Amino acid sequence: MPTSAHRRKLRILFASSEAVPFAKTGGLGDVAGSLPRALKHAGAKAAVIMPKYGTIPQEYRDRMKHVADFYVPLAWRNVYCGIEKLELQGLDFYFVDNEAYFKRDGLYGYFDDGERFAFFSKAICEAIVKVPELACDVLHCNDWQTALCPVFLRELYRGAPQCNNVKTVMTVHNIKFQGQYGDKMLSDILGLADIPAARDQLYCDKDSINFMKGGLCYADALTTVSPSYAYELQMPFYGEGLDPIFRRRSNILTGILNGIDTSIWNPKTDGMITANYSADDLANKAECKRALQEELGLRQDPTRPLVVMIGRLTNQKGLGLVRYAMDGIMRRGVQVAILGTGDADQEEAFRYFDQKYGDMMCARIAFDNALSHRMYAGGDILLMPSEFEPCGLSQMIAMRYGTLPLVRETGGLRDSIHDSGDGWGNGFTFRSYNAHDMLNAVLRAKAGYEYPDGWQQLVKRAMECDFSWSASAKQYVEMYEQVCQLW
Ligand code: ADP
Hints:
Elements: E1 11-15, H1 27-41, E2 45-51, H2 58-63, E3 65-74, E4 77-88, E5 91-97, H3 99-102, H4 113-130, E6 138-142, H5 148-156, H6 161-164, E7 167-172, E8 180-182, H7 184-190, H8 196-202, E9 208-210, H9 211-218, E10 221-224, H10 227-232, H11 236-239, H12 243-248, E11 253-255, H13 283-296, E12 306-310, H14 319-331, E13 335-339, H15 344-356, E14 361-364, H16 369-378, E15 381-384, H17 394-400, E16 404-408, H18 411-416, E17 428-430, H19 435-449, H20 452-464, H21 470-483
Helix pairs in contact: 1-21, 4-5, 5-9, 13-16, 14-19
The chain binds adenosine-5'-diphosphate (ADP).
């Protein structure tokens, strides 16, 4: 076997429906924008492939170069596909271009999402065959939007020499979203109706198919974004109906904790925050808090702990607990500021609290990246009481900014945050999905905040935690090597 010095670099093609800075709705966008770069530092060759959305900022669209175009077979029709390329900070991004599917004012939520992402997955397979620079050893798929790639590769592209040796890795970022559609798609779009094995693996119900299930059954390796979530996925409570597959394939399932892009999320250099600071000199954090209170119309009182929440306003994020405990939190003189968009009932509830509590509570119902930076910097505590949390990035970002996370012990939150009660932790935690337990943790944090010396120590300890990608990227490269049987 060749030694690592003689071996050529592993070529990883990272397939994702979003990637920072081009398109992002959540953690997957952050991961796809930063993990591939970290893979390069860890010794692999990596490139990203994603849809060319109409929402990608013009400055990037202007810089894209046309690489190839061809037609993608989707059952009885052939659909145009262009491949464009843009190099950004040393990493190649490839864009799948089809205006009918992707030139829209958002990423998801359309009646034909199933068809759009079936096309995207098929286009990736075609591109591997037709575009020599996309040749790869591992196709790394992420979530349901690219989960059909392993199915197509095995069932429809086995004969192509460019695909013969391509191994597939399927990463689950959130099992809640699976891509379930009527089984008519099998014949009408996927072109898999006559392949019994594919039908078997894709069917999830009498007359519906499940993209994620297909990916999980066909991929050569499965990963998820934290060790705890890898364990939880095997339980009915968390597995969303697919837990039997995770149990069956647990020998090829690994949990690797996400990292964050520490060059973007850095209070020392961040141009979007009011004043820069670091663990060695925290003075300006107080100025960030004051400015945030002013911006959000909150009482400018440094003695009040300011709890911030940044994220999708959905049940997953534990908002039921927050709504239940809100009166109790307010009664104790703690300020709360929420930034997010999501389910209509959740948005409505937080607008109501905003009205009710005047200058002690603020809800910004928006997706606003710059404001998120100012909130990470200006907050004292980040609240994340998720019902489940595959990894969670907000808690890691918050720590970078010296904003202490208060989290429920689940998934990646459990793997990244340890309660400070025992004297060495980096935040506050509670275990049961229970509003009183959460409120107790908020009160413990408030009590801690009232002792500035101890609080500063805790803030420094949190800021010194290493959530960069380097350790995780090494684990990914080891996993790829194992999948390619280079060990
Ligand atoms: P998830 O992937 O479940 O949405 P994560 O915590 O893994 O949650 O990642 C969420 C990412 O999206 C973080 O970078 C967070 O700052 C960002 N984010 C979420 N909602 C908003 C918003 N309304 N405005 C700005 N950024 C947001």
